[in-house]
Amino acid sequence: MDNQNIASSKKYILVFVALVALVLISTGISTLNLGYLNPLLTIGLAGVSAIIVLTQFMKIKLDGSFARLLVAGILALALLIFFVAFVG
Q1: How many structural domains does the chain have?
Q2: Per-residue pLDDT for the chain (88 aa), expressed as one digit of tens each?
Q3: DSSP string, 17-46
Q4: Is 45 part of a structural domain of the chain?
Q5: 3 lies in a domain?
Q6: pTM over 0.85
Q7: CA–CA separation, 3 vs 24, rounded Å?
Q8: Phi, psi (rounded to 5 degrees) for 35
Q9: Which domain holds residue 40?
């Protein structure tokens, strides 16, 4: 049997704590008046949360190069939409 893909409960608890911390930080930032930095910081934190979910729960790091290319393309499209929305 290949037990390489089985994660321990300690890992899941750490990921859960990290995601809750990111949500609390994002909520705290949204209450501050930072001007144009508010959306940038909250979207950045959301991106970090998405990367944690992709790598830990969806096992993107274990998949082949096509899945990585697909994720990179989606992230590039999201950045393009974000850039056009705020600059355009």
Answers
A1: 1
A2: 455 656 678 888 998 999 999 999 999 988 888 888 888 888 888 888 888 887 787 776 666 777 777 777 887 887 788 778 777 5
A3: HHHHHHHHHHHHHHHS--TTHHHHHHHHHH
A4: yes
A5: no
A6: no
A7: 34
A8: 70, -130
A9: 10-87
